[in-house]
Amino acid sequence: MNSTKIINFGRDYAVLILIVLLMIVLSLSSDAFLTPRNLLNILNQNAPLAIIACALTLVIIVGGFDLSTGAIFAVASVSSAWIAINYNPYIGLLIAPIIGVILGYLNGIIITTFKVHSFLSTIATSLVFRGLAILITGGFLIPVRMKEFTWLGREKIFEVHVAVYILIIFAILSTFILTRTTIGRYIFAIGGNEDASILSGIKVNFVKIFAFSFCGFAAGIAAAIQVSRISLGTSQAGLGMELQAIAAVILGGTSIYGGSGAVWRSIAGVMLLALINNGFNILNADPFYKDLTTGLVIIAAVALTSGRK
Amino acid sequence: MNKNKEPDTSFFVSGSSNIRVEKLSKSFFGTTVLNNVDLEFSSGEIHGLVGQNGAGKSTLGKIIGGHYQLSSGTIYLNDKKITKWSSKLALDNGIAMIHQELALVPGMTVYENIFLGIEENTFGVLNKKNYKLFEDLDKRIGFNLDPNKKIHDLRIADQQKVEIVRALARNANVIIMDEPTSSLTNDEVKKLHDLMIKLKKSGYLIIYVSHFLDAILEVCDRVSILRDGNLIRSGDIKNENKTSIVEAMLGTKQEVAFPSKKINAEVKKTVLNLSNIKTANGVNNVNLKIHKGEIVGLLGLVGSGRTEILRSIFGLDKIINGTIEFLDEKITPNKPQDTIKKGIVMIPEDRRKQGLVLTQNTKSNISITDLKKVSKNQIINSGKEISLVKELITLLDIKPNEVDGNIAFYSGGNQQKVLFAKWIFSSPNLILLDEPTRGIDIGAKRKIYELINNLSEEGVSILLVSSELEEVMGLADRAYLVKNGETINEVVPNKTSIDDILFELFDAKKELINE
Hints:
The structure holds two protein chains of two kinds. Chain A has helices at residues 2-12, 14-29, 36-61, 69-86, 89-114, 118-137, 147-154, 162-180, 182-192, 194-199, 204-230, 241-252, 263-282, 290-305, and strands at residues 142-143, 156-157, 160-161, 232-233. By secondary structure, chain A is mainly alpha-helical. Chain A has a single domain (34-305), classed as ABC transporter involved in vitamin B12 uptake, BtuC, CATH 1.10.3470. Chain B is of the alpha/beta class. Chain B has two domains: 3-250, P-loop containing nucleotide triphosphate hydrolases (Rossmann fold, 3-Layer(aba) Sandwich), CATH 3.40.50.300; 270-343 and 429-437 and 472-505, Rossmann fold (3-Layer(aba) Sandwich), CATH 3.40.50. Helix content of chain B is 31%, strand content 25%. The interface between A and B is medium-sized, with 27 and 33 residues.
């Protein structure tokens, strides 16, 4: 009775348990780890990925997949840089999330109109979007060295990077949508049982389109932060980011089958991956072992979580 | 796996098996489902397990079949204490279980399914199909299954036969059947019962878990009655009758009857009027009328198009021809979300697949049909939501009475109540009700009947479909006979007998009337 409670607790909070274990190990092995500076750095560096993971949580709970977030990220990045140079840096930053929403909306429309599984359709759109990004740049890099543009990724307010505030606001927003609004309720219902949702009169297509648009929006915000930080628009931005984001969401304990999950879990998933990375850096460990270790930790988390509803 | 295990062709000669459980207990997540049960099953008998939903009868079957592990207690097989137990070990020891939800591979053939896991092979390479083995098995039972048919092309009843042959192919001498008749027609039930008796006479032990007391009384030799996880009594069927079993199941003396309804004196106002409705999905020519506060039944055989009529009204199937008038207004239903807005709702027959979101709690399931009622600017007011949901939980007597209950673990009856609560929450004018009491126990059934009556007394109109004729006869004010997607006749239940209706529906197959 008590042991089952412990097992259930372990399943529910596997990702947090691993984070705590890793933090204990890292702080015992290095003085540089448990400092506000290092921890804030980790948060700041991973803010773009974490923002995408927050929104992707909605898509995965509704029962979908978005493999195009990396490509949306690229289109938003290069458009942002291009407009910053040719028109205005502020409009450049603002355009990124707008483009994100448009591309995410397109994803949603394609999925609901043609009734294709999002896994397949977003692989296709990711190729289209990536191609679009290459066309925008003409194959060149777009450097943007303007203070009006780079502040978003580099400036600090009260010793904390702007990106971290944006992440916090975005995480709260995503959580609020998911847990406090009608559309959040519908997202859970559709992912849990689509047939029942249709019979309950839920506008299933509308909700799915919303989730994908929101995910695109997040990729756009993430792109604005990143392009401003590295002050360079490149069509290769965000390569592989979609898989990292999905890994983080699932690692956090959101069900891959849809119907259950939480935004904080995805952020925890991102942080777990980030801590492993950070550990290798501050311990000066052989980077050859990094992928191997990351893979083993993911397996451990999955093993702990298995059997969770 | 190997050749030694090839099905015994002399299938009526089988070893005997006695199973005894001692102080058997089982709990799920802290809820006790079985409590210190002592029971004995011996070969050559059909042993019925009865009880309300949640009484633990299915769980007991599943523990013996190795699908669940017991929490405490002991199982003896032929007086030998069992220490390790799983579905594979159970099968190896000749105990096979046939589930309520069939466990076949839909894309594979009958032959492949029957020998799944015990294929004859040479170092892992499959041998040529041995149809003789299959035929030997099939002939003795007389099912006449086609070994090359794919499972998904078979009707449920035939799929069940495959399950039974599969158990026999594994040399099972104990067969546990969990609600095997819930999707069978009367004729098929009769055949299944004949087979069970045949098997019993050749020394098999059959454990028969069922809600259908008539079936239990007809074929069982012994019956064990469970209530709330406790064994009430176990004994010869001769000493029992329907009333005595129901009393033991319920704990208190209670009649299996339909609540009487106050006659509505109100001027009859037509709520729904269908004329000449035709769809692509099996509805050919339907004419019917429902008045305010009236319960109207659809009587017909499985496949007659009853459910399809409901679907067409709800906007799930496209209407090709005919008109629907709802509250004196012509409507063309094409999407559930639109019909729901008008006040027409459908309570589907399959609560797990079409009705409930099992990953969500009670509250979210109930309020989903009308979140507008408890939200402002799309933001949910959870205090208001909880208080409205609580009212419904009390009204319907849903157990456990928690707003954040995990409905995946609720009993069938309580899940059904949640399903009703969900639709009452949206305050409908017309409820399309499909099989409202499928697979639920007598106590919950009564509650659902009362609820249907109360709703109609409050002015809600109900169109009722049920395979249990008694249910329609007991509840409905009027009923239509449906055949081949057409409404052929209108009857008033208390002026007609079930026999007459059956006679008409079955086209004079009189022998089917008295099971």
